[in-house]
Structures are given as C-alpha cells and as structure tokens.
Amino acid sequence: MDESLAAVSRRDLLPGPDQALRAVLDLWESIDDTGGRVLVLEGGAGSGKSSVLRAVQDETDGACELLAGARWSREVPYALLGQLRTRTPMYRPTDGACQASDRVHIAESLLAEMPTETEDKRLIILDDVHLADPESLQIISQLGHRLRGTRLLLLIAVTPDTSAEVDADFLRMTTSPVCERVTIPDFGRVDALELARAHGVYDIGEHGASVLVAESSGRMRVALEILSLLPEGRWPADPADLPLPDSVVREVLDPIEATGSSEVSDAASALAILGGPQDLPRMASVAGLAEPSHAVDLGVTHGVFRERNSAGRLTLGLSRTASARVIIAAMTPSTRRLFHERAAESAYREDERLVHLSAAAAGADEGLAHRLSSSAAVAERFGRWADAAQLHFGAARVLPPSAGRDNELLAGIDALASAGRVTEVLPWIDIGKNIAPSTLRDTVLANVAIHRGHAAQADDLLTRADAVPTDDDGLAAQIALRRTLDSLVRWDGPKVREWANRAMSLSGVDEPANVESHAMRALGFAAQGRIDDAKEDLEDLSDRHLTGAQNQRVRLCVGWVSMLAGDLREAVREFEAAVPTQHERGSLRISLWAHGWLARVQYLLGEWDESLRTAEVGLRQADRANISLVAPLLNWTTAEIRLWRGHPIDEVMGRSDSGAILSDYLAMQVPARLVRATAANVRGDHDGRVAALRPLLDVDSWTRDRTSFWPWCTEYVDGLITLGHAQRAQQAAANFAANTVGARDHVRAQAAVASARICQGEGDIPAAEKHFSTALELFTRGRQDTAAARVLYSRGQMLRRANRRREAVESLVRAREFYEGVGATVLVRRCDQELRATGMSWRGMSETDSTRNTIGTSAEAGTYVPLTPQEMSVADLVVQGMTNAEVSRKLFIAEKTVQYHLTHIYGKFGIRSRTELATVHLSGEVPTV
User: Fold this and answer.
1) For the segment 493-504, what is each residue's pLDDT rounded down to a tens digit?
2) Is the full-model pTM beyond 0.85?
3) Three-class SS string for 523-549?
C-alpha cells in the first residue's frame, strides 16, 4: 500500500477523504441488513486514499484483511489470494497450468467460506490491484457478482491512472452496477487552503495554495511538512523561498547517492538543468559523459531515472516531480552556470540556446538581451507563448534596471498568462505592480485578471489602458485583443465583433492579435445566432495552415461553432484536436476550454464515463494552473454527472467555486447556476432550482439578436410548472419559443420541451404529447441521447398521470435503460417510482405483484381498501412523518396534489388525521420510495 499519507491521522483528513471514510463505514454497518457488497474507493495520488484505508482498518479492527499487489509477485498465479485467511489451503492446479476451470473452482471454494447470517461479518481490502496477478483478480471478479447472500464487504482501492494495467474482466466488474463507488477528489487548491488555515497559515491565498499543491506533488503529507517548516507560519512572497522538506530532499538525493556514481549525479544534474525528459545524446553532452549507458542503467535500477518511449523516440527523465528543484538547489552557482553553458552548446533550437546563455551569464549583456527579445517576438508570432515567456524573462535577466527591463518583465508575464500558466505568473505580479504605471502594465495585468476570473478588475484595468492615447499600434491591438476576450466570456456578441475588428485593423495579418481576434470574431457571430457567418469566418482562418497555439485556437472555435450548430460529432473531432499542448507547444488555456466543451458534448452524446474523465483531467489542470475562468465550465459537467449518479450533494457542491455564481463573466456564472439548479433538483427542492436560474432571465436571455449558449430556460420552465407558477412559466416558454423559431434543431427541441410542459400544466395532453414528440425527434436526429432520455422520462410521467399506463411504461422503460447504462442512479430510481405508480407489469414484474402492492389495510378488520399507486406512495411517506411539502418534493408533484391524494385516502379509510392513517395503513411489500 502507498504509505505517502500514513503519517496523517484521521483528524487531519480533509472533507473529501473524511466523507469517503464515512461512506465506507456506513456501508460496512449496512451489511447486516443488505448483505454482501462490493465498494470501489477511487482516488488519485495524494487524494488521501491511503489514509482512508488505514482509518478503515483501525475502525473495523480484527474483521479486516488487507490484500496488496506487488510488482515482484505479479507473475505468480494466485499470489494476491494467497494472502487471504482461509479455512482450507488455496486450491492450486496439479499440473502447473492455470486453466479457467481452476479459477472457477477456487471462486466456488472461496464463496463457500464467506460469512453468512450466523457468522460475524468480514471486510477484505484490495490495494495496488494494478500490481496483482490476473488470476487472482479474475477469481475476485467472479466473487463480486455473488456476494449478496454473504456478510462480506469487498473494498477495492483503485487509482484512475493505473486502470490500464488492471485485468480487463476485473475492471469491468468494478465499473458494473454490482459495485458501489466512492470517489475522493484530488488534493487541490481548495484542500490546500483549508489545510493551511487549519495549521495557522492564513496569508497563503489562492496562488499560494496552487503552489503548495504543485510543490507537494499533490501529496497531503508533504504539504503538511512544508507548512510546518514555514518561518513563523508566514507564507513567502516568492515560492522559490519555500522550504524543501527533508523527506522530499532525501527521497530525491538518497537514490542518487546510493548508486555511488558521480556519473549518475552528473546525468541527474543535466536533466534538472534541461528541465524535462531528453534523448541520451543531449543528456550526455550536458553531463559531460562520453559513454552514458552504464550511468543510465545504474540510475534506472535505483529509481533515479525513468525511460520513456514517446512516438518512437526514447527519452530519459527524472523519476520524481520534485527532483529538478532539489538537485538544482544542491548545486553550487558555478556548477549551475557550467551546466547551462553546456546546455546552450548542445541546444537544438536557437531560442533554447539563448535562454541557457542568459541563465549562464554572470552580469548584464545588452546584445544577448536584444537577441532574446527578437526571438521572443518570433515565438509569439507562432503562438508559442511559454517559449516567449522564457525568452522575455531571459532578456530581463541580462538587462540592467531600466524601462527596457521592465517592459521585458511585463512581456514575459503577459506571455505566461497567454500560455495559461497563471500559477507561474502570480509570483511575478508583485514585481509587475512595482513597475511604474503605464498602459502596457495595465494591459498585462488585465490579461492575468481575465484568466483568474476577476471581471471587475479586468474591466477597470482595460478602461484605464484604453483611455490613454497611444501611437503604438501594437499596444493598441493588444488592448483590443484583451477586450475581445473579455467580451467573449461575457457572451456579448456585438462587443466581441467590435473589438475583434479593431484589433485586426491595428495588426498585421500574421500577428497574434490578428489571428486570435479573427477566431474570436467568429464566436461573436455565433453569439448573435449567425452560425453560417461564423463558419465562413473560420474557413478563412483554416485556409491559412496555422500551427501551434494559433491552429489550436482555430480548432477550438470550429468545435465551439459546430456544437452551436448541433453537429456534435464534428465538435468532438475539433475539440479533441484542440486539447493536446505537447507536440506543437500549444496553450494550456485553450486546451482547458477544449476540455470543458469536449466533456459537455460527450455528456450530450450519452458518453458519461468519457465525459467525466475529460472534465476531471481539465479540472485538475485548471486547479494546478490557477485558471479560475474555465473551472466552472469543467465543474458543470463533472458535478452534474456525479449528482445524477447519487454522490453526496454536499461533497459535490463543496468542490464548486461559490463565487462564480455572482461573476459578471457568463462563462463562469451560468455553469455555476446550472450546477446549483441540478443539486436542488436532486434534493427535490424546486424553489431552490428556480431561484438558482431566475437571475439568468436578466443576464442571459434569448432574443432575436442574441443567442444563449446554455440550456437553462427549459429547466427554469420545468421548475416553475412543478411549483405551480403557471403564468410565469408560460411567459418564459412563450418568449423562448418566439425567439428560437429559426434556430438549430437542438435549440428548437429545448423550446418544444418547454412548450410541452406548459400544455401539460394546462391539461392539454394531446398538444403536450405533440411537443414532446417533436423534441424527441429533433434530439434523436442530433444524437443528443442524454436530452432524449429526459424527454422520454417527462413524457412517460405525463402519460402515467393521464392514465395512459401502457404508453407511459414504454417511454419510462426506454428512459430507464439509458439512465441505467450511464449509471444515473438518482434518475433510475425516479423512473422506477413512476413505473411502480403505473401499476403495470414491466421488466419481469407481474400484474399480480403490481396489484398486491396497491392494497391498503382498512380500519375494519378483515377488509381491504384499494389505493391507487400514487395514493400508496403518498401514504407511505406521510406515515413516515413527512409534511405535505416534503412529500411533494420527494414525489416531484405539487403540494396541492399531495393534499388532494390525502383527502381521497382519508375518505377511503374513513379517517380524518395523519395519526389515524399511521394506525390503519400497512404498506406491505411496497418498495420504499
């Protein structure tokens, strides 16, 4: 088991791990009533998974066994199961072969040993399953499907990054409906803030929290060590001054020293200076090694190096995230300069050579500064913002204090922000603020503020910058470019086009400001509903054969417009092309937007697992990079899937940025409000659902000259109808329908759903059914399976209430099949509730059983009172002590409808109070709603 968090006591568990621990222990307690279960505990490195397992062992004491895989025994059949305490020796084949029949026999033998009703319950933990022998995992996958008749909890700890190494059959079992699942969020910025403040470090701030996550490699134990070493508990202004925990230093240096080889040390120093995996000739050149093979072999054996094979190119890198910082800190200044000089001599690219020369320089060198600045301009032209930042900072390093040095620093800050590396930018912000006020400074700081989601600060800085006249067209174009982005995330189409046109008029056709503004101008057209104009604008850019981040931006915008047009498969292709940043040195900020919209499209297509993975990867990157602007978009999909899959609401909402809901940037506010609305819907709190969406009528309304980007209007109408606010719902639906007459299919489908709910509320079932059918056809044509399932559920619910039970069952079963396939347990339960209420047979339920489940017992002994399915559901909840309002939220019906059913129930039983109902009503075998 990974012991990285072993030193953390249970009281130090953060909300995510603590909630996971409570979920595991709750399930352990429920084994007495529910029978054996399989629980998957999922969490990445540093998430707190190991400390949860340790706490589970402490809480369950002797009832618990831990089985852990190990790389050295992976090839030994049944090695993992051999750790299990059994009454009889593990069955092994006599001929040495591992036949399938052997594994079946072992599975049956083990099942017979599992505790039953008369025996104490048992807990088996499986850890490091990616290192376990496949034979053991295949046997366990057989057991997993047959535990209900036992009193065993099988707890499987998994790490998403290692799933590819796990036996395929076992992996399918862990993702099947037979398994419960608890996911621990990664140790991120919010956790780091909470951890720091719990240990008395109050001045850390969001940036410091991001740095703490990065410096600890996402490991809570290391983060605690760093916090404990801070002088007087104060966070340093410069992250370079953070103390290096001795455990991290020893973790890096001990394996190097254990080799006893100066060549391994030199090779490690070379890789640290070069800043990433390198091919062997380059590493050897910087390390000064004529023949590196022996040093490489020795370093790999001792875990100093790790070989990688990427696209057929073999490279060597340092094994640990913190290695470079530790090794460089241990080098003398003269040694560092020597290695930088060698790195410059062996550099494959001129800009890299210049950066190493600046790092090796012992003083000012204005000639080198000029060369660095010129090279930075070339990198910017091709959108290589991270390279440009290094070059600008390199130029500042070899310039004496001057206005020129200040401008290079500002240019470096701006380039880092454009690359999406906001965490690396923030240490420079104080330096930037100390530079004399200027238009350039305000423009650069505004760029950082936009990516951090600080709308008011960005607007103030850009207003000040634009108010100062300038003859510098390049600077004016830069201001207009920032205004274009600011307008885009406000989803203000006319302003996007206005500022984009201005930026393009002030810059050359191949300059970054021109290309970026041109791409965003297309989205300005899209925001006004002019999809064809947007496509035409993007075709002009596509014909220019752009590379790097510029091509990445165009691909993102093409995907964005394709999604708005309803062409989801085209959108997937374009977003996938915009996600990678490694090969063409693209921009992380563009990649994160691509992650966000790709996840959303995958969700709409019904590919929930892929969508969740995409969004979670993006969220982790956004958290590390401190790009708050895009986080709500990524969290929208993540939270919605988790909420519908039954994850604890407080846990899901605890990962959301609560401030985003008030942002002036619609790209932040609308997704945040949609998450709140979904959480309220899951709770059955329709007042909360409507309250979350109501402000969007003012800030994101759909008009003839403006399109909304987010599907909130249908949700708003549905919530109003559920609450009985028919007039407000009718007005909202009518406005939406009137302004989307010429819209794309998926938008008209949303309007049709809203109209259907209005007609349903008015009792016009034929008209409602017609609207639902239209929506279903349009969503199905666009392959929006998730939206189509929602229509099927709503239509089935309506038909059931109209007493068209057979048609209702058909629609509800189709919706249920989809929700079961994507693991949406909350929605599966709602479908089951509606299906029970039809009284019809479905999926094996007999008419006799259905009839039996709709019988109540009369106060008169020996007689029976028949209740309708809905009356039975209401009665079941009322006798549990629920109020009418609580019953209405639970059953998703109006409070007046609850009272209507209660009146009929009282009449059938001849009673007058809830107390009397509790006395006479027996629910028999009716499932709990």
Assistant:
1) 999 999 999 999
2) no
3) HHHHHCCCHHHHHHHHHHHHCCCCCHH
